[in-house]
Amino acid sequence: MDGAFGLWAAASPRTRHLISGYEAADSWVSDGHKWLNTPYDCGFAICRWPQAVHAVMATVAPYLKAGEVAAPKDMVPEFSRSARGIEVWAALRSLGRGGVADLVERCCRLARLFADELRAAGFEILNDVVLNQVVATLPGREEQMPEISARVRAGGEAWFGPTRWRGVDAIRLSVSSWVTTEEDVHRTVAAIRAAIP
Ligand SMILES: Cc1ncc(COP(=O)(O)O)c(C=O)c1O
Question: What residue's CA is closest to ligand 1, atom 7?
């Protein structure tokens, strides 16, 4: 199951239902560098069948014996790597279970605020804003979405990209930073309004 973002929904009782059934998956992948806010390059794969992972990943050479299941070099594609697990450990240790739930809930609440403020600015919200993503467009001016997102990025107020949703040009906002506030939402929507040609 690709849970790069979505797996973290399980941290909150308010959003857990959105990924119901994930317990049945044989494997999950997720990122620390998304919702957990660790530095880049921090992904994890969690598999119900460690022997299968070992069979695929273990490397044997005359000078390298395959290690046991769970030996670090035999469960991942790389041999040498930095200690990225420490950053994940530190984030989880400092946030705790409640802190991760709070982070998820706060980002989802700010995504809903984005949707409300964009609607008030004349945008149509194309997705169901159930998590931290908002996909929006200006009806009749859809072709302006790439330009609007480029202008806001160039101004430095916020970073988001253009997308296409069911054939319609749109902007796509994803709220995932632990420092994002309501004030940032107000400022970003003001920058979006100002960027409309
Ligand atoms: C659902 C999903 N899967 C995978 C990826 C890619 O993840 P990575 O940063 O590990 O390349 C993303 C990135 O946005 C994503 O949202």
Answer: 4
Distance CA 134, CA 7 (A): 18
pTM as predicted: 0.91
Domains of the chain: 6-96 (3.40.640.10), 99-195 (3.90.1150.10)
E strand or H helix at 116? helix 84-120
Cα separation, 142 vs 69, in Å, equals 52
In tens digits, the chain (197 residues) has pLDDT values of 999 999 999 999 999 999 999 999 999 999 999 999 999 989 999 999 999 999 999 888 888 776 777 788 888 888 888 888 999 999 999 999 999 999 999 999 999 999 999 999 999 999 999 999 999 999 999 999 999 999 999 999 999 999 999 999 999 999 999 999 999 999 999 999 999 99
Pocket test for ligand 1, best of 31, 38, 131, 159 (most atoms within 8 A of CB): 31
**Could you tell me if 146 and 169 are in contact, meaning their C-beta atoms sit under 8 angstroms apart?**
yes
Q: Cβ(43) to ligand 1 under 6 A?
A: yes
5 lines ligand 1 (CB under 6 A): yes
Quick one: which atom of ligand 1 is closest to the CA of 34?
9
